[in-house]
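<amino_acid_chain>
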Amino acid sequence: MSTTTKRKHLAEIEKLHNKGLSTRQISQLVGITPQSVWSNLQLISAESKNIEQFQVDLPKHLSKIIAKLVNQLHQVDLDKVTPYQLVGMISLLIDKQRLITGQSTSNQAVLFNIVESACKPTSFVENALSSDNPLPTPSPSEVVEKELARG
């Protein structure tokens, strides 16, 4: 039996099982022995348990990855990765970790917007640099308040 055929059988067996059909009924509909249906249901059950465990463990694994990235910031070859990219990776991982654990991600989006704004030239910065009378630079708290109002 090819891998594609086996996947189709697994999907069909799972669907029929979830509808409440017996092993014998499924075997007749799919065209395989009841023993094969039972074996496939055991495989499906084991895969489901693995997926559930992966989902439980994922936030812990993301925390480890985030910690490694933060700890290695001083070792980064800035010719290959910019600080902006590093902050983006860390923010993305934190955002996904919070999403998986059911926590709010909106404050992470605000943080990312602040970092993004700081790393990209804006019309404010361009005007300040090109003007004979530069505009006053906003304080960090003013930038945060502006981003929170925007977000």
